[in-house]
């Protein structure tokens, strides 16, 4: 951040009085600009035992497979975000079950939340951010072509819970990949 979004003056990184972390502080008006993690919200949507995946039509990780998910918008709940993202990316209508996994990704300032859900029908298609959509059984999941570690972790936990016939909540803290 270089300029204040309130008055347009230059900002500098410093620890404001009463704080313990560096923040962008406006040199003219004194506005403190907090930058906080972004929430990525999505759904593990099931249809007759198979899981809905989308092949990404955007960067990062263009052409790789992922769960329907994306950045939460202001003014919506996490459940609303999961419903919206699934509709946008896979043109699919779902019913949300419980929150299934929370993955902290602090090195990129993100938190990923995945709900369990069910497709309401088999009518789905690629949205504007997807090249294609498809249903996959556990053995058909393109594990080596998954776009994000958060998705792989959540799917592995999902299938393990499904085999055990009991779904639990899962929380993970991801470390940066080697060479990051």
Rg over CA atoms, rounded to whole Å, is: 19 Å
Order of helices and strands: EEEEEEEHEEEHE
Counted by DSSP, the helix tally is: 2
Helical amount: 10-25%
Globally, the shape reads elongated
Q: Summarize the main sheet.
A: 8 strands, mixed
SS strand fraction: 35-45%
Query: What number is the mean pLDDT?
Result: 97
N-C termini distance: 22 Å
For the secondary structure, the number of strands is 11
Ranges where pLDDT stays below 50 over 5 or more residues in a row are none
Specify the structural class.
Answer: alpha+beta
Question: What brief labels describe this structure?
Answer:
alpha+beta, 8-stranded mixed beta sheet, 16% helix
Describe this entry's structure for a reader.
- The chain is of the alpha+beta class and 180 residues long.
- The chain is built from two helices and eleven strands.
- The longest helix is centred in the C-terminal third of the chain and has 16 residues, at 149-164.
- It starts with 10 loop residues before the first strand and ends in a 7-residue tail after the last strand.
- The model has no long low-confidence stretch (mean pLDDT 97).
Topology record:
Layout (H helix, E strand, L loop, with lengths): L10 E4 L8 E4 L5 E2 L4 E10 L2 E7 L8 E2 L2 E3 L6 H13 L3 E12 L4 E10 L10 E7 L12 H16 L5 E4 L7
Parallel strand pairs: 4-9, 8-11
Antiparallel strand pairs: 1-2, 2-3, 4-5, 4-7, 5-6, 5-10, 8-9
